[in-house]
Amino acid sequence: MLGVITLLSPLITAAIIALGLRRVPEAASKLSVLSAIVGFVCSLIMLIWSCNPVEPLVWATAGDFSLKIGLLSDDKLAQGMLFIVTFVGLLVHVFSLGYMKDDPGKARYYMGLSLFMFSMTGIVLADNFAMMFIFWELVGVSSYLLIGHWFMKDSAADAANKAFMVNRIGDFGFMAGILLLFAITGSLGFEEIRTAIENSPPAQGLLIVATLCIFCGAVGKSAQFPLHVWLPDAMEGPTPVSALIHAATMVAAGVYMMVRVIFLVEAAPMAGEIIAYIGGGTALLAALMATQQDDIKKVLAYSTLSQLGYMVMAVGLVAKHPGGDYAGHAAFFHLYTHAFFKALLFLGSGAIIYACHHEQNIWKMGGLFRRMPKVAITFAIGTAALMGFPFVTSGFWSKEIILAEAYGTPVLFWIGVGTASLTAFYMTRLFLIVFFGEPRTDHAAHAKDPGAVMTRPLMILAVPSLIAASGLVYKWFGIHPPHHADGHATFILGASIGALIFGVSLGFFLYKGKKKEPIGFALFRDKFYIDEIYIGMVRVCQDGVAYVAKALDQIVVDSLAVLGSARLARGVGNLFRFTQVGNLQGYAFLFGGGVLVAIILLFSFAR
Amino acid sequence: MEISLLHLIVLLPLVTAVMIMVGAPARQLAQGSSVLNAVFGVLLFSLFDRDDAGFQFVASLNVLESPGINFALGVDGLGVVLVLLSVIVMLCAVWQVPKRIEGSEKLYIVSILLIGGGAIGAFATTDLFFFYAFHELALIPTFLMIGIFGHGPDRTSIAWKITIYLGVGSLVLLAGLLWLYQASGVESFDMLTLIEAGKNIDAEAQKWIFLLLIIGFGTLVSLFPFHSWAAPAYAAAPTPVSMLHAGVLKKFGLYGLLRLAVPMLPEGFAAWENLILVLLLGNVIFIGFVTISQRYLDRLLGYSSVMHMGYAFLGMMALNEVGYNGVVLMLFAHGLSVALLFALCGQLRERVPTLEIRELGGVAKAAPFLAVFFGLGAFASIGLPGFANFASEVMIFLAAFKDGLGEDGGITPLQITCIIAVWGVVISAVYMLRAYRNIFQGEREPQEGLLDVAMDQRWPLVLLVAGLVAAGIFPNLILNLLP
């Protein structure tokens, strides 16, 4: 029942705002915040106690086949994820009260947020692929609406479109995977598919293809290489949206989905291998790109890509340790800690951007530590968690588990360590440039901490960024704590602390007291030119093919068919002039004549 | 003979047309009668017994003794959905008739009524003769409307093109139907009797009859490569005609295949299976790419409507109840969404000097209602959940995989076709959102003095969206009707 309330209250809110509160933004925002509170309370109760299962709802039937909307009830993974979604969601709703205070589209904004909460809750609670796909698409819609919130800006409208298209490509694979699994197992439910695969293992080749197709969905949503290009552009949306959707929750949906169907990865180890390398590759590439970005949100966006890469790598590595109840916990644990500290960093950047009059270039900030102490301290906590500051931050522990999983695969292990070092480097750079030195613009010189409605959420998020790895939390979320007993634990610990120290020192050495970029490495700044390559590919593969198709359509299909008819047309042209007068008698005569001909033909055929 | 509700629905538009011809006030009467007919349609839909798989509201009047032609009416689940679709789209089309018409308002409105009335008749009759005749009744005013009231300098040649194209298609269809009638060996045009008797036709004859029918019906429903009449015609036609033809009348081809060809000629169907799979990919992928390269919004919508017909054929190919249900839901969903998009395209045409997508921009600033509803129509058309189109596409895709893998444990040709066709959802998102972004969003300033949709023309559009959303959230509203 609680699940139903959590699911439906944002939907009802969105509907009420769309139908009646578009011109009453104050009421719309309050209603939306209220529904976020309701969702949070429900999910908290579900997390600590549990909730009763509900009968699945039949959505569509055809004969004996039906598609159902069924909510998971007693599932630790879903409860944990739902808590993250509603908790971060609530804080973002509150933060937005300040951030979007004077926005003319405030009602529309809150409608989008509520729609997103509904869709995301649906993904989390889905117990079958059909339902997950429905909400998967709905999340895409709400993301499209929110990225394009300022659709009068070309850049925002383009970014929203790009996000939608790239996700659709991933969804194509996802759908194909769902269809293949449906053909193999005859079912769409996660539990049924798992049982079917365990009981009668299908041909390995087909299963690998199906698993990789399903993974395509995650590649799109969780912005993995080669479909990562939409996420940095999505930063065109309002910053609280970036925090909620494009850092903490929606982009993690891909990882969540893969953890939910982790049995597929276990059953198809080769697919797992590919997944792990895609994740590792993304982690490293994105971290390299992050080192040379000048837009505070872009740095955080590439950092998100990189951290998602860690999670995906952990998903793929499950294939190396099959059979344990350990499966997928590393990925999910990092998802969960990352949600808190990344939401904190994004909301912090939102507060900075707000205070600097919508300035996002870090080189036009500076000296903000003294001017915005509350934001600065919470941002420092988030930064420490992201870098994996040993023992006291949650990010440290979750990164440890992933490195431990990767230990047996040297390439991925060293990619993980290298990425950790790069993370420490670019966050040191960001922090030094934004908060220290002299203010480099007037706006930065006059910046100050925003009101409580914006700083409180930061302080609240700082708490789980520090303590999210405690015993109670492990128990609630059903996560297995890191294995300290392993013999190589010390080595991993040393590697990750070494990476941290190296990255921070390098960043400190290079960027301390600098007023402009001292390196200026174009390849990283321009994101390895992947966007440009894609634009070229779209020109050739899509618009070029489309152009050829259009020409073929006109020349071959059309001309040949019409060539004959044009001659006919000229012949009957006189008759047409007669009808063009437009009198009904003429027309009625024609019709009557047609029917008469038909009847005569009928008679001649009929015996 | 009893008068049933179905009689009222079929005859009301025709009687209204006659009354207008003899001098009744055209616009008001047509508007009133379309509202009344929509009420009747919804009533019919709600009175329809969902547990009864057979034909309902059956009534028959003998017209000709031999061969037995009867004015016979009756609807099953498929028929009632299409009748409902027709009355809703017709209501919206009549209310979208422009305020100022250059030429005879009377002719304009009578034609609209005949197109709608003919379509309803074709879906509601169970007699083969009237099935064909009603469709012709609707088709002829369509040609006239494009030639007389259409847009653009080349409307006359386009009117000719569609006339000849569909005329030839109809003749091929007629030949197929007559051969079917003759081969079945029964003395009746009653479709139910014919369907029963059709099973006796030998395989070789089935094969060739089916080919004629797929070409005939296929041309009417713009199956690749018989599609090239569609997009220019929709672009040139007056808005209500595009709405009615693309939304309703075009569905006649698929209706005919589902009603007659597939159940009567199973062996003929099987013989051409691979051909149809290739042709439907032509619709989804080839036409999809053609759509991407369109520069004008009206052509783009026309091609998009052609493209989506490929999915309907895909559902038909699965030959199971999931596919059948999916197709019927798709006909309903596509009819409403394409009518909505053409209506809004017509509204836009009245407001801007050109429909060239590149030349437009920022329209949302001046016309938020137009922008929001076009957005909803675009979302429906690219198959987002919440709209009926999504539910129907998912059903169609699943249908191809429902019966498991092929006998050798690999995937079947149908399944390969389906997976390729899923790429169509990417293609449709590309052209739809690109057009939406260019026309409605962005920094460009819209036309000076551009006004939003007039208040009294809004509610029919709201109705279309409401229908799409209702059937999207509760697809069983439609699906439950089908056995």
Summarize the structure.
Chain A is an all-alpha fold. Chain A has 26 helices and two strands. Chain B has 483 residues and is mainly α.
Structure characteristics:
heterodimer, A: 607 residues, mainly alpha, two-stranded antiparallel ribbon, 26 helices, B: 483 residues, 21 helices, 72% helix, globular
Structure description:
The complex is a heterodimer of chains A (607) and B (483). Chain A is mainly α and 607 residues long. Chain A contains 26 helices and 2 strands. Chain A is 75% helix and 2% strand. In chain A, a hairpin with a 2-residue loop joins strand 1 and strand 2. With 483 residues, chain B is mainly α. In chain B, the strands form 2 sheets. Chain B has a two-stranded antiparallel sheet with strand order 1-4. Chain B has a two-stranded antiparallel ribbon with strand order 2-3. The longest helix of chain B is centred in the last third of the chain and has 31 residues, at 321-351. Classes of the chains: A mainly alpha (607), B mainly alpha (483). Chains A and B meet through strand 1, helix 5, helix 6, helix 25 and helix 26 of A and helix 5, helix 6, helix 13, helix 15 and helix 18 of B.
Topology of this structure?
The complex is a heterodimer of chains A (607) and B (483).
Chain A: H1 2-20, H2 25-48, E1 57-62, E2 65-69, H3 76-99, H4 106-125, H5 129-147, H6 154-185, H7 190-199, H8 204-221, H9 230-233, H10 239-248, H11 250-260, H12 262-267, H13 269-290, H14 296-317, H15 329-355, H16 368-371, H17 373-387, H18 394-406, H19 410-435, H20 442-445, H21 452-467, H22 471-477, H23 489-511, H24 522-525, H25 530-580, H26 584-605
Antiparallel strand pairs in A: 1-2
Chain B: H1 5-21, H2 26-47, E1 56-59, E2 62-64, E3 69-70, E4 73-75, H3 77-95, H4 105-124, H5 128-149, H6 155-184, H7 191-198, H8 203-220, H9 230-236, H10 239-249, H11 251-264, H12 266-271, H13 273-292, H14 297-318, H15 321-351, H16 363-366, H17 368-381, H18 388-402, H19 413-440, H20 458-473, H21 476-479
Antiparallel strand pairs in B: 1-4, 2-3
Helix pairs in contact in B: 1-2, 1-4, 2-3, 3-4, 3-10, 3-15, 3-20, 4-5, 4-10, 5-6, 6-8, 6-9, 8-11, 9-14, 10-15, 13-14, 13-19, 14-15, 14-18, 14-19, 15-17, 15-18, 15-20, 17-19, 17-20, 18-20
